[in-house]
Amino acid sequence: MRVFFKLALKAVGASMAGLEEQVTPAAEALSVDELVRDVTLAMQEGDSARAAEIVKDLRTRDLADVIELLTPENRIALIQALGAAFDFEVLSEIDETVRDQLSEALPNELLAKAVTELDTDDAAYLIENLEDEDREEILSQLPRNERAILERQLEFPDYSAGRLMQSDFVAVAPYWTVQQVIEHARETDDLPDTFSEIFVVDPAFRVLGSVDLSRVIRSKREVLVSEIMETDIHLVKATDEQGEVARQFERYDLMAAPVVDQNNKLVGVITVDDVVEVIQDEADEDMLALGGVGDESIGASVASTARSRIPWLIVNLGTAVLGSLVIQQFDATIEQMVALAVLMPVVASIGGNAGTQTMTVTVRALATSKLGAANAPRIITREALVALINGVVLSTIIAGIVFLWFGSGMLGGVIAAAMVVNLFAAGLAGILIPLALDRLKLDPAPASGVFVSMITDVVGFFAFLGLASLILL
Amino acid sequence: MRVFFKLALKAVGASMAGLEEQVTPAAEALSVDELVRDVTLAMQEGDSARAAEIVKDLRTRDLADVIELLTPENRIALIQALGAAFDFEVLSEIDETVRDQLSEALPNELLAKAVTELDTDDAAYLIENLEDEDREEILSQLPRNERAILERQLEFPDYSAGRLMQSDFVAVAPYWTVQQVIEHARETDDLPDTFSEIFVVDPAFRVLGSVDLSRVIRSKREVLVSEIMETDIHLVKATDEQGEVARQFERYDLMAAPVVDQNNKLVGVITVDDVVEVIQDEADEDMLALGGVGDESIGASVASTARSRIPWLIVNLGTAVLGSLVIQQFDATIEQMVALAVLMPVVASIGGNAGTQTMTVTVRALATSKLGAANAPRIITREALVALINGVVLSTIIAGIVFLWFGSGMLGGVIAAAMVVNLFAAGLAGILIPLALDRLKLDPAPASGVFVSMITDVVGFFAFLGLASLILL
User: Fold this and answer.
1) Judging by DSSP bridges, how do beta strands B207-212 and B197-201 pair with one another?
2) Which residues form a coiled coil (chains A, B) (predicted)?
3) What is the pLDDT of residues A75-107, one digit of tens each?
4) Do B360 and A389 touch (CB under 8 A)?
5) How close B297 comes to chain A (CA, Å)?
């Protein structure tokens, strides 16, 4: 995958006279790496005004990238140099570790200003990890209404829909006409910046339906909202887990979904662009978990990274020692024929690789609902057959290599047989272990690898050394 | 991650009288697994009418799931039993392998009907893999205009923006008033079903800007489009790679982007909901690649699965044999002290795990643009330090275990030293190899694992056996 690192500067607002000009092409600007280099250089020379000048016309996401890649001290210096020109939206785009660093380092007045300008969900992210005292001080500087909304948002659990939603939405009554809806939109000030769906509610703010904005615009003025509203809508509960919400959006191709509280009262809206980030995060989590890493940010410190990775390594140390115990049972055999020691890691290693292949496919299929009780037997059979076929292919190759290397057809036969056995075990472990964990309501992504490699090590060493001691000695 | 398997039946269209009723909650319906079981049972009893009855009120995505989980024969039988009640949208939701199976098995007349009803991008997916003869027959049954659009779409390369885009869009002139836009929307029939953005074009259909629908609705009737249009827009070229487009949507929080051809003429629009699937697919691809699997569908046959997985296993066989060659250099040492054979896989295995951790984080950071030339030195230093810290921790543990097990402090010291060396090598390999591959414009996800495990095997065996032969014998 190629990294997308070229950016576009904001096109200057085109006047009527300039309409013929094409929109600024994305490829002409400096890359993020070049910008970071220039900013760092300016900072080193103590010229923070020049540093601010370099980044001041960047798009939000690009400035966020630049800030992420700077050193912690330069991040603060750059934001302070930007002063009023700093785009607070950057704080909602930035990596969590960096955001927490910034919200601790920046003065509370600046944060209070940021909170006022940001959407409620982003404002909540900004202050959620602050110390109580700082958070209180910032909240106290907000208008009463905004403060109440933000406090409510912070009451929802982490990673809940309530944290993800926008508190601003457009709600209308079913007996309104299209004309009334348009007038309401024209005259009301505290509507969201952009919206594509309007919700229809009863007096208790329970959701009756939704109307897509394009439907509104295409309907005649006198048509009633109740006539054009869609009633087949997905309600999201504010306490629903964000990953679950994302899967619903994906499943049903939703553009927006109303969020309701425990009384079924409409409290916010989640739009598909909020969900994109959740999908990416969930995929990240799964991928890292499969690689034996917890939820780790690239910006995390040495100490926290080392701490988060060591548990999995210790568990693996345990399973590796288990493999050693198996080998020890055959130490007399190995003493008689040291070629066994030379070859045994091959059997275990290929088994581990084949098991990882099956496990990866299985974990991903479970996460994306492609694997369920209905097709599990068919997929298990397929994996077993694939394991046997590949076992035979690889056995033939290794038998040939061993015959040429050690000049022993018997040794070649033994390693081939052990390889078939271990690949079959690997295939079954690779699918059955994640399925079993999922059935036990455990997340298969982080835990499967340990068990799969344990089985391929133990079976690999046992099959190879056991067969060797039976046949060769 | 929990699998989302409970579904909602379509809520029946609420009449005005029924407005007080709440929308059907999602939890009451049958699960996909239960539906598949019931349908399979009905099919076994030859009662395909009952099977059709069971699924006829399902949402598109849920019916797609049921069809995916059925056996190939039952899939065809169910679709034929549904007849006119079959929702063709299912074909655009379904897994690619299953879609190809269906489009080969279903009669061409049915496919032609499906193509007419589907959006152009989905219609293109449906017939792209058919044999030329069948595709021609289906295309010949389409109205001329639709046929031309579909043929143009099929001319764009696979995985290009042109294949992902919708050919229907709303385009207006900059000198139109809001009133004219609304009237145009009310009176034109061939607009997309829903849209949230309107594109402003010149007479040659070059994009001048875009207007969010909520902006239209909130503006006074006499306001000109040119006054409210956004000119800072992201143009997507029809030949752009879909993954690249998805990263732009994510980066800049886009809701929709205009797609232009080589003459900068507007030819379509991509909306964020199209992109959600691409993001998911890209994450899938990366995850499978890290697990040593190509782009593999859970529905693929035994033969194609075995074939797609074997190359990686053969490459790994090669690196494992390389490890064996290292061990062989020390066969005299092992003969003298068989405990070395018992313990050596531990050193290699933990190194492999630690290398995989670093590699996974690195590959993911590269894919999501969190790692670039600007912060690479800092991250490399961090990984080296993490590797040293965890190396020392794990070495202490294994030294203790070995001392208790074999009663030799020297052997414990040797394995501890080898472990520190190998974890350091693993940490560096885990970050430097993906970075190098990325610099060479190669995809780091599939290739990194082989090199990392090669290094941890070779270094692990060499450090442990080499130190042992120097110190212990």
Assistant:
1) antiparallel
2) none
3) 988 988 888 888 888 888 888 888 888 888 888
4) no
5) 8
Q: Which residues of A199-227 are buried (b: 16+ CB within 10 A; e: fewer)?
A: bbbeeeebbbbbbbbbbbbbbeeebbbbe
Instruction: Read off the tokens for B425.
Output: 């090598």
Which three-class secondary structure string do you get for A343-408? Answer: HHHHHHHHHHHHHHHHHHHHHHHHHCCCCCCCCHHHHHHHHHHHHHHHHHHHHHHHHHHHHHHHCC
Q: How big is the A-B interface in CB pairs under 8 Å? A: 447
Q: What is the mean pLDDT of residues A113-137?
A: 82
pLDDT digits (tens, 9 = 90+) for B165-188: 988 889 999 999 999 999 888 888
CB A53 within 8 A of CB A80: no
A chain contacts of residue B173, beta-carbon cutoff 8 Å:
none
The DSSP code for A18 is: G
Terminal alpha carbon distance of chain B: 51
Structural domains in chain B plus CATH codes: 31-158 (1.25.60.10), 171-273 (3.10.580.10), 302-471 (1.10.357.20)
How far apart are alpha carbons B211 and B195 in whole angstroms? 11
Name the residue with tokens 């271990």.
A422
Question: In chain B, helix, strand, coil percent, each to 5?
Answer: 65, 10, 25
Are A246 and A270 in contact, with CB atoms under 8 Å apart? no
Residue A228: DSSP 8-state: H
Those of residues 249-288 in A touching chain B at CB distance below 8 A are 249-255, 264, 272-273, 275-277, 279-280, 282-288
